[in-house]
């Protein structure tokens, strides 16, 4: 069948705010072309504010040709109570980054950020098992990454967050599910890390402060960023200057895109 939009096209979405910098639509539609599924499906960006999220989901439930959506910042945590069902993995993490719609407008969510982040690192040849890790952030993406690191066998994990209570809470949840991992919260005042990760949006704007202090960056072997655009953030440039190996945010998205499309019903 020709690759074209027609009356039977199923609509997928990226729900985020902002959305102009997002690479997910290009990646998703590129994969749909490769699978010869562009036309039967198309993915569109939808800039949705926090205040409008509930109303938008209510509308999407009523759109019969809407099939699912990728959920990005800042909605990954806030969307959870608005859904009808979430997978056990999403319950564990407390966040969702992809939803699908079933008959009757039923919305189910799951989270794939952790699998995507770890998959991207492993494809690049970086080791998770036995690694000492530093994670900055305790929001939806960061929480998924924390659980992913623990699932794949990191030896230790320090969680730092601007709101200390959120870091303490996330650390406690990781300890509950993965008691074999040494988990701490609070500033990384000493010690070296095999892997230092920015799990926050800091870096999307060129004027953002470094999410990880330069003194800490210099004590890391690998520095990874979840920010996708720009690909080379100030943090990664700083890490390169200290001789660290770096991992951009793009592999995290690429590693989970196939899984996202399948969850939304693309076969």
TrEMBL record:
InterPro entries on file: Aminoacid_DH-like_N_sf, NAD(P)-bd_dom_sf, Shikimate_DH-bd_N, Shikimate_DH_fam, Shikm_DH/Glu-tRNA_Rdtase
Reactions it catalyzes: shikimate + NADP(+) = 3-dehydroshikimate + NADPH + H(+)
Pathway stated in the Swiss-Prot or TrEMBL entry: Metabolic intermediate biosynthesis; chorismate biosynthesis; chorismate from D-erythrose 4-phosphate and phosphoenolpyruvate: step 4/7
Superkingdom of the source species: Bacteria
Glycoprotein as UniProt keyword: no
GO molecular function, one term: shikimate 3-dehydrogenase (NADP+) activity
This protein's UniProt keywords: Amino-acid biosynthesis, Aromatic amino acid biosynthesis, NADP, Oxidoreductase
Domain called Shikimate dehydrogenase substrate binding N-terminal: residue spans: 14-99
Alphabetical GO biological process terms: aromatic amino acid family biosynthetic process; chorismate biosynthetic process; shikimate metabolic process
Ranges where the Quinate/shikimate 5-dehydrogenase/glutamyl-tRNA reductase domain occurs: 127-182
CC annotations in GO: cytosol
EC number(s) given by UniProt: 1.1.1.25
Full protein name: shikimate dehydrogenase (NADP(+))
Organism: Noviherbaspirillum autotrophicum
